[in-house]
Amino acid sequence: MQLKEKTILLVFAIAAIVNLASTLLEGASMLNYATKPLLLLPLLVAWQSVTAFKTQFDRLIAGAFLFSWFGDLLLMMVSSAWGQDVPFFILGLGCFLIAHLFFIAAFWHWMGKRLGMIQQKPWLLVPFLLFWGILMYILWPGLGELRIPVTAYSLVIIVMTASAHNLWNLLATPAKNYLSIGTILFVLSDSLIAVNKFASSFVGASFAIMLTYIVAQCLIYLGAKGMRE
Fold this sequence. Notes:
By secondary structure, the protein is an all-alpha fold. Helix content is about 80%, strand content about 0%. It is globular. The model has no long low-confidence stretch (mean pLDDT about 95).
């Protein structure tokens, strides 16, 4: 790992620790606002320092990190003074939807004409679809007018993690482990957001959501980096 990359990732790590701490402290909203923009931006800059965006795969992963950053900023504004007038949640959801589409495109682009594990064994899709079905069953009564966008978004995140796991037989260790755990945690983070918002709010939701999200993005970064080696 190059010195520049290490330095940038250190910024990410510090911002992540402070941001997680802010979710546990009362009256620390300003600390949360200050650190959240410093989560995905360092990952994007570190990715640029490693790849220089030379290949289509590099650019697709960069697009995923960029729109994740946009999503962070917009969701951060939900509780702001403008949150009553601007649909920041829907806009943030849209940005993360685009981010997941970038990840899906990157995984399929990297695979090319090779056959992945799930393509060879389609029954492996069952656990992913089962999780999606259970999640939608839990969320459905509370979705109201958001049933269509949330259903579409949840299906896309399942396709994203399934696309990552499709590469299992083509990737070396530890890249495939990073990608597997990272994408699963991303789905878990998004699912926790949905459950907390539409089904039943729970204590420690903010911490759990951000912890799984931060670790997910970090592992996907490491997995994508391993895919280039």
